[in-house]
Design a protein that fits this description.
Radius of gyration: 42 Å
Bound molecules: 3,4-dihydroxyphenylalanine
Order of helices and strands: HHHHHEEHEHEEHEEEHEHHH
Number of helices: 12
Number of strands: 9
CATH superfamily of the largest domain: Bira Bifunctional Protein, Domain 2
Strand content: 15-25%
Length: 349
């Protein structure tokens, strides 16, 4: 009987040694130690053996059962480790392979497109692009820009105040001051960004976008202003365009002008069929921006940084991005920019 037990143990050892997977080990466990296996049955029958054999057979069978059990545990452990290695190897993701990008959907908003077009034109003319804070001080937004204490834009009804001294900027012009404080002349800069006013109707939204421009150097004249803005108008509205300057007033420029571009839809306010042009309302001109020569009072504010009004001059301008986009693309309602109706947005590829 003990011979048979030893034989079973050797058989189990040999089978475990060649088993190739932990699943096979579990099969061996059933075959040698399971309910119907020979060795456990032997153990169960020990009680029926003659008394002098019981103890020898019982302890041999018990020892063999424990030995097989722990051998199978050990082999199962070894095989599990190499199976895990193999799986890690086979299922490894190579994160250095090129990705599988989603197809491009959507497109840039017309305001973003227009801002970038404007930026491209001025970068081509040698201007830098900077951005400034949307939360501004009264000092930068109004005082430094030569607004007198009575200026209507300062009113609580016109401007979003955060406190007596802090507000949401009403224009991008405060960046004129910040830029000149940051670096001495010459400066050739445009500043795109959001601005805020307490206005809301067909043609006004409480938040909109402007692009500020500033050029300060030793020999800047109104002719430079006109040449620069003519190049801009032709780049955006077509090479045939002309511009005209009309006298105007801004606190921070002197003289100040409003700039019109000749209508791209008609000639002299009359369309091909002889009718009055709907875009320029028959005037032949479209207002595009405000501009002027930087007021010496503004330069005086930053004179300490090299902006001596006796030595440097400059021009500045400010335009609404929505306005430029509406004119160029015939958009009739400002609110379309902010409704985010896909039928509107997808027209501007
Ligand atoms: N800041 C003015 C506004 O928001 C626009 C403007 C006019 C900017 C003339 C300028 C300028 O730089 O020279 O209405």
């Amino acid at each position: 009987m003990t011979d048979r037990i030893e034989q079973l143990e050797r058989e189990a050892q040999a089978a475990a040694a060649v088993a190739a997977s932990s699943a096979e080990i579990e099969e061996l466990r059933v075959r040698y130690l399971g309910r119907k296996a020979e060795l456990p049955n032997l153990l169960r029958e020990v009680a029926q053996l003659p008394a002098d054999q019981r103890s020898a057979v019982g302890s041999a069978a018990n020892r063999a059962r424990r030995a097989i059990d722990s051998l199978l545990d050990q082999r199962a452990g070894e095989l599990a480790v190499s199976e895990l290695d193999a799986r890690l190897q086979a299922e490894r993701v190579d994160v250095t392979l090129p990705g599988d990008p989603l197809p491009a959907i959507g497109r840039l908003h017309l305001i973003t497109q227009t801002r970038r077009e404007i930026e491209d034109v001025f970068i081509g003319l040698g201007f830098n692009v900077a951005e400034g804070p949307e939360i501004e001080t009264v000092s930068y937004n109004f005082d430094a820009l030569n607004h007198d204490a009575q200026h209507p834009a300062r009113a609580w009804s016109d401007t979003f105040y955060i406190s007596d001294e802090v507000l949401l900027r009403t224009h991008t012009s405060p960046m004129q001051i910040r830029a000149m404080e940051l670096s001495p002349p010459p400066v050739y800069l445009i500043v795109p960004g959001r601005v805020y006013r307490r206005d809301s109707d067909l043609t006004h939204t409480p938040q909109f976008h402007q692009v500020e421009g500033l050029a300060v150097d030793e020999d800047i004249t109104l002719a430079d202003l006109k040449g620069t803005l003519l190049a801009f108008a032709r780049a955006i509205f077509g090479p045939e365009r002309e511009i005209r300057l009309r006298p105007h007033f801004f606190p921070f420029t002197e003289p100040s002008v409003e700039v019109d571009v000749s209508c791209f839809n008609c000639s002299g306010g009359v369309v091909a069929g002889g009718e009055r042009c709907g875009i320029c309302k028959g005037t032949g001109w479209l207002e595009i921006l405000g501009s002027g020569m930087v007021d010496p009072n503004v330069l005086a504010y930053v004179a300490g940084n090299g902006y001596d009004p006796e030595r440097v001059q400059g021009f500045a301008f400010g335009m609404g991005i929505e306005r430029i986009a509406m004119l160029k693309h015939g958009v009739s309602d400002l609110r379309l920019f902010y409704d985010n109706d896909i039928r509107f947005l997808e027209q501007f590829a």
